[in-house]
Amino acid sequence: MTKYQNEIRLYFTVLALLFFSLSCGGEDDTRLINNPYLNPIPVALNLNLNLPQYNALKYPGNFLILNNQGIRGIVVYNVNNSLYTAFDLSDPNHSPSNCSTMSVEGVVASCSCSDNNSYDLVTGQHQTESQAYPMLPYRAQRNGDVLVISN
User: Would you list the domain boundaries of the chain?
Assistant: First the structure.
């Protein structure tokens, strides 16, 4: 092969990789991006689980609400000490308002608006309507004793 042919092959390989990387994203990603009610706010938090204020997150089944984070606060839920979930507490099926800020009881987050939307804290899915927008998720990853919450 000539140098020219190698350059063309490299060019098309890079172009193909770029195309495939830009086309990645599932249906759920599209639904989150196209949610007309929520505009995600950048989040980058490191929670040291050795600190007293994060002690609840050391035990499966417990949650912690981080006020003044995200759109209307973030709820972090410990599923099993390896798996954590984190969701925004703004009801994804309402524009942010006083009633759209959700409260948490057990594994359910609910809003106080007239439709009483409720969501599962493990999956983020609406409890009754399959066509409703799911809760806005954040990445939750445990690295040793630090839980990293980001988007």
Answer: 35-150
